[in-house]
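Hi Y.,

Following your request, here is the sequence exactly as I used it, all 524 residues.
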Amino acid sequence: MTDARHGRRSGEAGTAAGADRVGDGASGATSRRALLRGLGQGLGGIALAALIADDARAAGGTDGGARGCGGRDGAVDRTARIAGDDGRGLPGLPHHAPRARRVVCLWQGGGPSHVDLFDEKPALARHRGADIPASVRGGTRLSTMSSGYTRWPATPAIAPFARCGQSGMPLSTLLPHTGQIADRICLLRAMHTEAVNHSPGVTYFLTGSQQPGRPALGAWLDHGLGRLCDDLPAYVALTSSDRGKTCGQLFYEHYWSNGFLPGRHQGVRFRSGGDPVPYLGNPPGVTASSRRALLQDLDALDRARFGDADAPTQSRRAQYEMAFAMQASVPGLLDFGDEPAHVLAAYGPDVGTRGTFAWNCLLARRLLERGVRFVQLMHSGWDQHGNLYTQLAEQCRDTDQPSAALVSDLEQRGLLDDTLVMWGGEFGRTPFGQGPSEQPNGRDHFGRAFAWWLAGGGVRPGHVHGATDDFGWNIVDGGVHVHDLQATVLWLCGIDHERLTFRHQGRDFRLTDVHGKVVRAALA
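Below is the corresponding structure, written out as tokens. Let me know if you'd prefer a different format.
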């Protein structure tokens, strides 16, 4: 054993002792190089300890645990928590036969206007410019942008409606392609939420709480049901924006967060430019075989130190393995060269431009057919406060054809029956106009009533569920709250929303909090 090697081991084993010998000037003192090396190892250990602590908190801490079988009392079996973190899902799930194996959420950020697109209201045209009566408005909570208003002018739809499909579903002529799939969608016309601002509203829909920190829907599904493939994440997020970047809302990471669930359930965002996933590729000089050898060595070290019963370490190992698998799977995934010309044409002219909504819709189909369980497309641009008469039509042009094409494409490939497609935003827009009272040019946020549509995955096709009053202001039948939609999505995936819980900080949490009921009238 050489002195250099002996010095290195001394530094690694006891940095403090080495420092004392240097300070004392003893003849056998550790060299300065060995001391600095030892200090580096010590700092690395501190950093590693911090990372492991972070993972432990993400995994639920000392009291974190999953419950998939309905138990609400007594201690949680640690082995059940670990089993739920190995990619196979939780014991006892699904609770019943699922109708949907995959979900794609076409998120329309900013709030699409229900009275312009999905909920025809002739009364708004008859009363154009007149104030919507106080008896209708009541004490509805609105955003601060409307707090000083003294007028509430009824503002009709900016384009006519048409009866679509054999079902005769009324839809705006701004959505001709959606009209062509009217007999395949279930239109929820009476959605409602307490949120009046964008980020809390998005967070509420996706995580069940208006405050960040809870797991997103895709993370819950991954945790409960596990993966469908081994070379792609179970949960992928894609983002896009309108052409003019008119919507100032940001895509926050907590929109696809694992919250307090183990870190492996975090959604993976594919970026619209550059490398789709940062640091996925190997640096120069590193080959796939050397990377494989490194992972094997890390795995051996982890098992020697922690065994197989440490959830944070298991989660970290799984993420390493997934990243390695994605090095092979992602490049081919992003190459649309194998798509037939008629398929590309169906998604519209923007499908060839990476980062557009159309490109993301086709990528979503490719992800779904390769086994990704939950794909979350997030598109902004629906926040029309002062540009309703120009921006709404442009948004429809960007999103209408790709959305309908995705539904049709899934159907043609035999995937629609067990794939749930969801389309909607955090809230709707006010039936009154925003801006100059004599000529309003926008609409404000409106959570009291708005619309979503669903397709495939066990929902009732060609069906309109729920109704609002003559002004599109109040729900008069079939109201669907945010938590109701969440409960319904979980039910379609084979999960009883009241039984999928995770113990965190002494409380059993679930996606729907203490609310939610399945909208059975919307099911096939």
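DSSP finds 16 helices and 18 strands in the chain.

Thanks again,
Q.
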